[in-house]
Amino acid sequence: MVKKAVCIISGGMDSALAAKMAQLEGFEVIAVHFNYGQRTQNKELVCFRKIASSVGASQNYEIDLPFFGQIGASALTDTSIEVPTGGIEEGVPVTYVPFRNGIFLSIATAIAEKHAAQALFIGVVEEDSSGYPDCTEAYITQMQTAINLGTKKETVLEIRMPLVTLKKSQIVQKSLELGVPLEETWSCYQSEGTACGVCDSCRLRLKGFREAGAVDPIPYV
Questions:
Q1: Residue ranges of domains in the chain
Q2: 142: closest CA among 92, 101, 95, 94?
Q3: Closest C-alpha to 79, from 62, 55, 95, 102
Q4: Which CATH architecture best describes the domain 4-212?
Q5: pLDDT tens string 40-75
Q6: Which of 46, 71, 198, 218 could lock 85 by a disulfide, CB 3.0 to 4.6 Å apart?
């Protein structure tokens, strides 16, 4: 029997590596992407399609979630809130989208149940991340328990988070080793043409490449 994995792919470096690891483990990859009104939605979608193709995804799901824009409360989905550019701050930043990963995992679970998948891959990073509460190992583990309680008896899903304890520099190194197309990934929170280089996400990405002794292939201002 072919083993299947639903991979949540944002278009960023972390989820691209997680999907590549799923492919190399012999999973048939079912790729899932969410358009939730984020500032760089169009660029992320383009990157998702290229990443999904690179891992030979058997099926792509592009899910629209416009209600995030209605909720607002995040600099990623509400243009009246500025994206911070002064460096990484303590606590939960304003770029946190309320319960985003919980919602993403719930929808991905429905897709996994449809395809009788055995695993769900998500590229969360706890150790070297922006401080989002829905990117922690403890949270994802509890979600796995809840998901398996709330699905059919024959549905037994393992949520895989292969990057959760890695630093960004290790993610860069691993991606280069495994041939992840980093030039087709995007991390910037606020620009779709040329990455700003100063938002939290750009700073983390650039720091990771610098510490890995590598050059980031995407353009920056």
A1: 4-212
A2: 101
A3: 95
A4: 3-Layer(aba) Sandwich (3.40)
A5: 999 999 999 999 999 999 999 999 999 999 999 999
A6: 198
